[in-house]
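hey m, so remember when u said the tokens were messed up on ur end? i reran from scratch. heres the input so u can diff it against urs
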Amino acid sequence: QVQLVESGGGLVQPGGSLRLSCAASGFTFSRYGMNWYRQAPGKERELVATITSGGAITSYADSVKGRFTISRNNAKNTLYLQMNSLKPEDTAVYYCNGYSSWGQGTQVTVSS
């Protein structure tokens, strides 16, 4: 059974940082590219960042480029999203995606 479980969300002030994690199980994690998406209230889900199976190649939405970093630890079957210089417009539910599966999401709220 494929499972993707996100953690690390929360409330943070503008300019702050958070690190999201996604623990994967039920498939060979190291063979698949992975993604982070987010969905803000009233908006469509959007792709935030992508990483290849080995972690060598990453890509980012323009809105987060230079502030967010996607990474992975294949030995731990875990995907990460380091988010720095957070802005109120980064407020959303963040989802881990890969192997045609989705996590349950973790809420990130950026507010003073």
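this time it looks ok to me. The radius of gyration is 13 Å. if urs says something different then somethings off w ur setup not the seq
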